[in-house]
Amino acid sequence: MDKKRNETPRKGGNGETSLKGREADEHRNTVGSIALLPKIVWPDIQPGLQSRLLDHLLLLSGRRKWWASAAAVQERVRRLARRPAPHRPVRLGRDVKVDLRFAEGWPVYHVEPPGNRSARHHVIFLHGGAYVHEIVGTHWKFVRYLVGETNSHCVVPIYPLAPRGIAREVVPATGRILRDLIEAVGAQNVTVVGNSAGGGLSLAAAQWLRDAGHPQPGRLILICPGVNGTLNACTQADAARDVMQDVPGMVEAFRIYAGDLDVTDPFVSPLNGNFEDLAPMLIFTGTHDLYHPDIVTLANKAARGGVRVEMHVRNGLQHNYPLLPTPEGREARSIIARAVGTDSENAVAGSGKRGLNAVELGL
């Protein structure tokens, strides 16, 4: 059997998970009783100055207090229900075409390359915000980047927020929007990109597609996805390292989104779902994200289910670091753009083959 050598994560002396130099264990790719394993890309480097300064600014901003308690989230949700935030595109510039359509009763923005540039590939982007916050300028700037860098047609559903939008309704509706796009342009012409809550919704919608007998998209790109509404794998030390979020408020946001479902239901916590026959996954996580332990479990469970998984891990980086204005964020966005570009090339070439890579990630 072929043997492949990859970086193996090690426990650091401070309790964080990190790589120890370039050490690696050998694992065998097998099919059957031995688990299939994800490919891990984990540089043994620490955050740069810009990322450290941004962490400090985020901590000073008091944003973490939004999630300090269930009561704080409940009050914020009430305030946003009285005065909903706008979802209109911002930070797109004038050199893209934006078309507002409707599907499932939701506004759906279509963002395309300018002029006569014909987009060959389609990206569905599902934004984050813990299911209670609307899409914001940072998300739209990322959409603009994807369109410009990959010449893709980007579809942005504005799904209803909790408590009006609940998992029992939002997940199937998202799945149907995805199904219709796949039927229109072909599965290999579609990549799903989701960040944070949008990453969890992307995974839940892909599981819905599979269970309903529909084809998978070409790839899932999950940016620091929230896939477990209980956050029961997050320790106090994990939570303390996150300068943007806190456990009590996040758990409450998931509870509100769950509606009449239990928060452990796969529609809310797709980590508990079945991973067989899902699309290949490209996953990003930072070790200072309180979602990090669950994202690690996601990568391993998906790979054991036979999914091709590549996960990029960065020491000391925060939640949603690929969307932040830092060198590490720019590097991650470049990796995402190359993946979408590769999907486009594979679609044109008619390539839909999936491979398997091996290396086990453990905490």
Describe the structure.
The chain is α/β, with parallel strands linked by helices and 363 residues long. It has a single domain (36-349), classed as Rossmann fold, CATH 3.40.50.1820. Helices cover 35% and strands 18% of the residues. The chain contains nine helices and 13 strands. It has a nine-stranded mixed β-sheet, sandwiched between helices. It has a two-stranded antiparallel ribbon with strand order 1-4. The chain has a two-stranded antiparallel ribbon with strand order 2-3. Strand 10, helix 5 (197-211) and strand 11 form a beta-alpha-beta unit. Helix 2 crosses helix 7 (247-258). The longest helix is centred in the C-terminal third of the chain and has 23 residues, at 327-349. 46% of the residues are buried.
What labels describe this entry?
single chain, alpha/beta, Rossmann fold, 9-stranded mixed β-sheet, 18% strand, disordered N terminus, disordered C terminus
CATH homologous superfamily assignment: Alpha/Beta hydrolase fold, catalytic domain
Mean pLDDT: 87
What is the CATH architecture annotation? 3-Layer(aba) Sandwich
The CATH topology corresponds to Rossmann fold
Q: SSE string, helix = H, strand = E?
A: EEEEEHHEEEHEHEHEHHEHEH
Structural class: alpha/beta
| Cα shape | globular
Distance between the termini: 27 Å
Helicity range: 25-40%
Oligomerization:
single chain
Radius of gyration using CA atoms only: 19 Å
The CATH class assignment is Alpha Beta
Q: Unreliable runs, pLDDT <50, ≥5 residues?
A: 1-34, 351-363
Strand order of the largest sheet: 5-13-12-11-10-8-9-7-6
Give the count of helical stretches. Answer: 9
The major pleated sheet works out as: 9 strands, mixed
| Strand residue percentage | 15-25%
Number of strands: 13
**How many individual domains?**
1
